[in-house]
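Possible race condition, two jobs.
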Amino acid sequence: MPRVDTGVGEGVQAPEGAGRGVRRDQPGRHGRGRPGVRRGAQDGVPGAPRPEEPVPGPLPPEGPADRRAHRPVGEPPAELDRLRDRWDQGDRSGDREAARREALNPLTVPEPRTKEARLFLVDAHAYLHRAYHALPPLTTSAGEPVGALLGFARMLLALIKREKPEYLAVCFDAPGPTFRHKLFERYKATRKPTEEDLKKQLGAARGLVEAMGLPSAEAQGWEADDLIATMSRKAAQEGLRVVIVSGDKDALQLVDERVQVWNEAKGVLMDAAKVAEKFGVAPAQITDYLAIVGDSSDNVPGVPGLGPVSAVKLLSRFGTLEAVLKAAREGHPDLTSKAAESLKSSEEKVRFGRELVTLDAKAPIPLGVADCRLDFKPGPALASAFERLEFRSLLRELGLGGERHSAPAPNLSGAGAARAENSLRAAPKGIPAKELLKAAAKAPEVALEAALLEGGLLGGGLHLALALPDGRTAEFKEEELSSNRAALAKLLLSPARKTAYDLKASMRALKEAGFELEGPFFDARIAGWCLDPSRSKPDLGALLRETLGAELPEGAGPSARAAVLPALAAGLSEQLEEQKLSKVYETLELPLVAILARMEETGIALDVEYLQALRGEFASALAAIKGEIDALSGLEVNLNSPKQIGELLFAKLGLKPSRKTKGGAPSTDEETLHELAAQHPVPAKLLAYREVSKLQSTYVEGLLAKVSPSTRRVHTHFNQTGTETGRLSSLDPNLQNIPVRTPLGQKIRRAFIAGKGQVLLSADYSQIELRILSHFCQDPALLEAFRSGVDVHTRTAAEVFGVAESAVTKEMRRRAKAVNFGILYGQTPHGLSRTLGIPMGEAKGIIEKYFARYRGVDAWIQGTLEEARKTLSVRTLFGRFRRIPGLAAKNFALRSFAERAAVNAPIQGTAADIIKAAMAALHPALLGKAGGKARILLQVHDELLFELPQEDVLEFGRWAKGVMEGVVKLEVPVVVDLKAGRSWQELEPVS
C-alpha cells in the first residue's frame, strides 16, 4: 500500500484516560519523523505517490492565532499549539495549501460500506508486552528470543479468526521521545527499562505484521494511542463501529456510542456503562479522574490526599476538573478544608497532568480508513517469516507447510482452526447415542464430560456427553446408558484417546456408575496449568479463549463443552511442545491423574472411636485452660473474641501491645502472644488454648464430619493444579497439614490407621530439598557431607559454630537445621531470629558464617536470581516452568517475596517432580506386588503412605525404596526412609 505523507493536524483533545503507544517510521525531511504506513510487500511499494483525494468539510483557520481562537471544547493544551506553530513555520510554509490539507488528517473512504462495519485498532505494544510476560522465554535454535512474537502472532491470528473484522490496523509506538516528553521531561520516567529480549522483539514485530499483510501505522513524536484516538474518532464519524484492542485504562476516554475498548486478556468489552461501573465516572471524565488520582505508570502527578473514591465523589458532584478547581478556590461547603487546600496547591500540576493523559485525536495519521480494509491471505511472505522464527505450529495451522514433528498423542492440529471456528460460530451437531458410538469405534479421539447428578429436574445418576473431532455429539442419560451400556463400556476401554477437561472428575463419575476408563488420555485442565501454573483454577471458557481465540457458547452444556475439547487439546499440545513442557505434562502430570483418582477412591481408614474419645479429652482441656485464665485475670472472658482478649491483655493486665491490626486495634496474634508470654502467664495459656481449640475444630470435628459411614474412611480430594511449585494439595478434608511437631498434634495422626489385617508403610525422601540444593549449587562441602552419609545438620553446625562434630550440642544442631532449611526459603536474619528466638545480630552472624563456609550456595542463589530477573521465570530440574513477574516489581516487599520464590521454586518444584515421577513409576506395578493388595493412600510433601498386608512390608518396602531412589540421578545419593506401623503416629523404622 502506498505511504501517505501527512502533516500535523489540529489538536482535538479526546476524553481523558487513553494509554500510550505509538509507532513511527523513517525520519522526515524536517528533522521530525514522517508518518509511516506499512502493509504486506504484495500491496505495493512504500513511498509511491498517492492520487490526490478530496478533502471533506471546511478547511481549518489559517494561522496559529486563529487555531487557538477556534479550538473546540476539549482541544489539546497550548503546548501542542506551540509545537504545531513551529511546524507551520518550517520548510512547509512554502506549501501552505498542502500543509492545510495534511492538517485535516483525512480518513477518506471512497467505497460505500455498511453502517455496522467494524474497525479494530490494535495497540501493538500492549499485545507484545502481554505476550512477553505471559509466556515462557522462547528462543530459536540460533538463540534469538521469539516468545513475545509467538504470543503476538497467535493473538492477532485469533482476533482475525474470531471476529472477522472488516477493517483493522496495528498501531506501534515509534522509538524516541514523544511530544509529551517535551512537555514533561520525566514522563514515564518511573517505568523500568524495557527488557533487552523484548526490545529485540518489538522491532521484529513490525516486520511480522508486514509479512502478515496487515495495515500498520506509527508516527514519530506521537504514541500509538494518539493514532488510535485519531482514527477511532474519524472512523466513528464516518459510520463505522470501532473496537480498540487494548488493556490500557487511558483508552477508555475514547469510549462513546460507537467506540468500545476490548481488554482481550480479560475478555471484557468496555462500553460507557462498563466504564462507569468500573471507575464510577463517564468516559468523558476519565482524563479528569486520572488527573486527580495520578498515574504512577506514566509518572503523572495527582492531587495529594485524593484517591479514586475522592475523585469519583468530586466529579459526581461538580462534573469537571475545572468545576472542582473553581469550587476549591471559592471554598465550596461540599469540600473539606483539607481537600480544598490540596486542590488549590495542586491546581497547576493537576491541569498539567490532564494534558499528559489526554490523547491527541488529531495526530498525524499515516493511513486512511480505506487503507485499513482487511484482506488477510497468508502467503509466501508469512510462511518465510514463520519459518525463520521457527513457528512450526503456526505454519501447520495456516496450511503453510513447515516441518512436522511427531507427538505421542494423535496430531489433530490440521483441523484445529476449523474446530475452533465451529466452537465459536456453530452449535454442536447432536446425533443419537447409538449412532455416535458406532462412529466413535473408528475415531482416533473421543472427548467426554461426565458428572454424577443428584435427583432433580434432570434426574439423578451419570450424565455423560461424548464428542468426536468433527463436532458430532451425543448425551447419555439413564435411557441411553441402559440401552448402549456394552458399546459404551467398549469405547471407554478402546485405544482411542479420551480427551476431557478435569479428567479425574470424569473418571470418578464413570467409576461410580460402573464404567472403567482407560487411556491414552488428554486432560485440558492439567495441560493449561502446566503452561501457566498461576492458573490454579483454569476455566474452560478462558482456556479456550486464550489458546484458540474461540468463545465457549454462553450457558454451554455438557455437549457443547465436550465439542470444543479436541480443538483445545490440539492447541494446548502445540503450546506444550513450543514451550518445552511436553515431557513434564506427559511423564509427570498426565499419569498422575489416574493415580490420584484411585487414591481418592481408596481413602484412608480412621479410628472413629479414638477420635470421639479425643473430642472429649480436648473439650476437658479447653475448659481447664479457660478456668486457669479466668482465675489469673479475675474475669470471665470469651477466649474466641479478639476484642475481649485485647481488653484482657492490654486494659486489665496492662501489657504493652507490640503491633496493631489493619483496623488499628492492638494485635493478639500468635507472634504477639509469644512476645507477651515473657511478661505474664496468661499469653502462654492463650497460646495453649488456641492450639487445642484448632485441633478440636479443624481436625477432630472436621475428620469426624468427613468420615464415610459405609467405609469408615476419609476420601480427600487431591488438587493437582493448586500450587505454582507443582506440589499437590488436598481438600475436603485437607490431609497435607496434619500436625506432627507437637505431642497434641501427634494425637491427631494416631487416628489414621490401616485397614483390618494391614499396616501403614511410610516411604519418605530424606532431606530431598537439601540434596537438590547440593546438586544445583555443587558446593564441595555440601556434596561431601551428603556423599559421606553424615548428619548434614550436625555437619553444618560444626562448620558454622567452629567446633568438632562430636562437640555439637542439640541447640547447635537445631539452629543449623533452621538455617539449612531457611536458606531454601530465602530466610532473612529477622526471620531466623524469630524462628530461633535469638537476637537479630546473632541470627545475622549465623547466616554470614553459613555463606562463608558454603560459598557455592551463595553463588548459586545469586546466579539463579540473575537469570530469573532476565526472564522473570525459573525452571526445575525436570523442566517445569514458573513465571515470577514480581521480580520486576518496584515495591521492595513484593520484589523480595518474588526473589525468595525464585530461589525456592527450582528446589521445591524439583522435589515435587521427583515424588510425582516416583508415583508414576510405582503405580503400574502395584498389582503385581503384595498379592495385589498394596495401595497408595496419601502423598504428603516428600512422603508416600501405603497400605498393605503386614507380611509383605519388608519385600514391598525394599522394592518401593529402590524405585523411588532410582527415578532421579543427583550428584549426591537419593535416600528414602521406610517406617511401618498400625497408625500414622506409631511408625517404626523398617530395616
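Job #2 (started ~2 s after job #1):
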Amino acid sequence: MAKKAASKSKEKPAAAGGGGARGRGPGRRSAGLGYVAGSAKGKSLVIVESPSKARTINKYLGPEYVVLASIGHVRDLPNRNPKGVKDPVPGVDVANRFEPTYQVLPGKEKVVEDLKRAAKDVRSTGGEVWFATDLDREGEAIAWHLAQELGIEPGRAKRVIFPAITKSEIERAFRKPHPIDQDRVNAQQARRILDRIVGYQVSPLLWKKVARGLSAGRVQSVAVRLVVEREREIRAFVPSEFWAVRGEFTPDLSAAPGLSERWAKVLGQRDEKGAAPTLKAQNAWLAEHGGFAADLVEVGGEAFDLSASVRDGEPEDLSERIGRIARLAGIGGPEVTVREDPEGKGPARFVRTATGRVDSATPYRVSAIETRRTASRPPAPFITSTLQQAASSRLGFGAQRTMRAAQALYEGVEIPGEGPVGLITYMRTDSTNLSGEAVDMARAFIGRQFGERYLPASPNVYSSSNKAAQEAHEAIRPTDVALTPSKVRRALSEDQFRLYTLIWERFVAGQMTPAEWDSTAVSITGGADPKTPLTFRATGRRLAFDGFYRVVGVPGADDIQTLPAVREGARVAAFGVEPQQKFTGPPARYSEASLIKTLESEGIGRPSTYASIISVIQERGYVEQLQRRFYATDLGEVVTDKLLEAFDDIIQVGYTREMEAQLDKVEEDHLDWVDMLKRFYVPFAKDLAKAEKLMQHAKAETTPAPPEYTCPECEKAGRGASPLVYRFGKNGRFLSCSLYPECRYASPVDREGRPRPAAATVNVACVKCGGPMTKRTGRFGDFLGCSRYGDKENPCDGILNIDRKGKVTAPSPPPLVTELKCPTCEAPLNLRSGLRGPWLGCSRFPQCRGRGKWADLPEAQRAELEKALEAHAKANPVAIVRTLDGKALTDASGRPLATAPTAAALAGESGEPETLESVAEELGV
C-alpha cells in the first residue's frame, strides 16, 4: 500500500532541551510507569517501550511533554482459541486471508488503560500523541498496536525514531515526524504469523511422533539442524595423518651442544595436568637463550609434504620415511616407536613418536633473509552479530547477556551530575554505516588524544557484508566519545562497563591509522647430506607502529617469536629437531560466536532475533553448551530427523534464507504479505497432512549398533551374541537388544554411542536420606546420585558433585535472597559468603550473570546484611559428607578432607552394581 505523507505538526520541536528534565513535578513523575489522571492535559504524550528509556527521553523534552512506557508489546495473538472455535492456529483465520485477531496481553490491561486515559486527556486539550518506540520492525509493530488501541489512524500518527537517545537526535526526530510504516508492520505481522503457524501446527506432530511437550520453530529448527549436522560431521570424521618437522637453531655455534641438552629438558617438562610447555613458553625460552625455531619447508629443493595414504582400509606406515628425514636433519640413529590408540579412527589408531638427539655439528647456513613492512587495518564498528561474537569470545558473554547490557546502555544509565544518559546507539543493526557527525567526533577526539600520526588523511569507510543491511541505520557506537569508559565506570554495572569498553574502543579504533609490522622470514639450509639439503623457515615480526592498537591493545599470538640478529650466509647450529606426527582435525564445534556468524552469513534470522534463537534452542533441550561449545542432544537429533522427514523444505537453510528475503521485500518493496503467506502455507499444509499419516513414531525406530556391541544377557541365556540396536527413550538414546521384547537388556550410552557401565553403588551416605549413593555420568561429567532416585514409594533426589581431583564435595547451602535488585535484569540478588567475603549475585544465574556492588552499599546496610547472612548460615549449615559407616569425607566448609579417598576408590568399596532391569526401567524400555 502507498505510504501517506506525514501531516505537518503544530507542535514545537523539543529544541528547548530539558526545561523539565531534572525535576519539575508532573514531567518527572510521568516518566515511565503509571499515569496520574489529568496530569497530561495541556501537554503532549510520548510513548516508548521501557521506563528507563522514558526517563532518559524525558530529560531532553520540556515540561509540555508527558512520557509513558508501554513495557514492551501490549497486544499479541491469543495463545488459545475462544470456546467453540477450532481454528488450527489460534488468532489466525487461515481460511480468511490469514486475518489475525489480537488481544491485550494478560497483565497489560492497566498499562493500556493508563495510556488511553493519558491520550484522551492530551487530545481533549489539543495535544498530540507521539510514538517513540524502537526503530526496528518490533518497534514499528508496537507503535501500530498502540495506535490501534488508542483509536489513532496509523497513517495520521506521529511516529518518531532516533538511532541514539541524545538531545540532538531527539530534536531532529521531533522536527520530522512521519506516519507509522505499514509495510514494516506487515513484515512483522507476516513473521509473527509464520512463526505461529509452524509452532502451533508442527509442535503437535512432534508430540504424537516423538514426545509430549516438544516444540518446533521456523528459524530455531534450522539453527538446531546446523548444530546437528556439525555433530554428525564430527562423528563421521576420519583424520588424515601428516608430519611436521620443527628445528631449533642458534647463531652461537659454541653454545649449541649445551643448549641441546637444556632444550631436551624443557620439552620434557610437564605441568600438574600433564601438559607440555606451550608454544608461547617455548618461544620465550628460545628468545632468552638466543635461539629461534624454524619449520621444515623443503627437502632436496622440493616442498616438504609427508602425508599418509590409505590402502584397503589400512593407513600407510610412514615410519621409514620420517626416519630418513630425521637422519637428513642431523639426528643420528633416530628411533620411531608406535602404540595403538583404541579410541583413534583410521590413521589415528597408530600413534608414532620419532626421537633422537641432533648433532649440533650438522652444517646449516642462513640461505635467505626477507623483510617487509605489513599493515593491520582496524576492524569495522560493531553491528549486532559482531558485537555478540566479540562479547562471546573476549568477555565470555552469551548473546542474551550481551543484549541486556546493550539495551541498558542504549536506553540510558544514571550518570552522577548528568541524570539518565543514553551511552550507545541502537543495538539491533546490520549496518556498519556511521553518520558524518559520528566520524567527525571520533576524528577530533583521536587528533586531540593521540596526535596527527594516528589520524588517517580521510575517514575510514566500511561496507556491510550483508547485502540486506539497512544503511539508514548506524553501527553500534558511543553517543559521545568524550564519555570514555573510565569516566562512566562508577555509573555502570560490571557487564555494562565491559561491554561499553568494547564498543567505545572498537568505534575509536575504527577511525585510526593501521598498525604497521616489520615482518622477517629467515631460511636455513643444510643437513647431513649435501646432495639432499633441507630448508627450514623461521618467521618473526616486530611492531613498528601501533596505530589503532594504541586503543584496543596489541593482540597476543603464541606463534610470534623474536628472531636474533643473523646475516645471510652465516653458519647456524641446530640444537633441536622434532619430527611431529599430526592429524587433521574435525570441523570445530559451534560456539555462540561462530553459530551467530553462520546464521548471519546464511541469512537466517535478523539482528533482533539472534539472541533469542541461541536461547530457545538450549531451553528446549535440543542443544547444550559444554565448555562454551554447542553439542546436539539426542533429542535434538531425533527432532531434526523427524522434521526433515516431513518438511524437507522449511528447515532448509536456503529456504529459510529466502523467507527472510521475502519478509524484507514486504517491508521494502511493498510485497503483499498475504500472498507471501499463501505461497508458504499451501505446500506446508500438504506436507503436514502427509506426515500425520505416514510418519513413524521415533520410539518405534531402531538403528543398528556397531557389530562389536552384542547383548550380554543373550549370551548368558545361551541365545548367542545377539546384535544391539539404538533406540530413543525418555532419557535419550540407549542400546537395546535386537530381540526386545523377548530380551529386555538395555544400556545407557556415552556421546559416542558406546555402552556406559551401569551405575555402581558408592560407599557414601546421601546427605538427604542417609541411604547409599551411586556413581553416575551426566552431561557435565561424573556425579553421585541417591540410589533411591526414581523410587516410587520413597524417592530421594540427593546429588553430590565430584571435583577435578575425583573427590566428593558437599552441596552448597542455599543463598540468602535479598531485596536488592540485579542491575542487569532487576531480579532479586542472592547474598553468599566467598573466600574474599560477602558477594551479591543474580538469583537467575546462569541465565543472568549480573553482580551487585557490595562495596558501594552504605556501611549500615552492609552490617545489617552481614548479620542476616550469619544467621542464615547458622540456620543452613554446610552438610558434612560421610561414608555409610560414618567417616567424614568433607570439612565444615564443604571441601574434601586431604585424607578422603576419591569417588573411584569409594566405588571400589561398594556392593553390586545396579541391575540391567533397573537401567531398562529408568530408560523407559
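The chain has a mean pLDDT of 87.
Logs attached separately.
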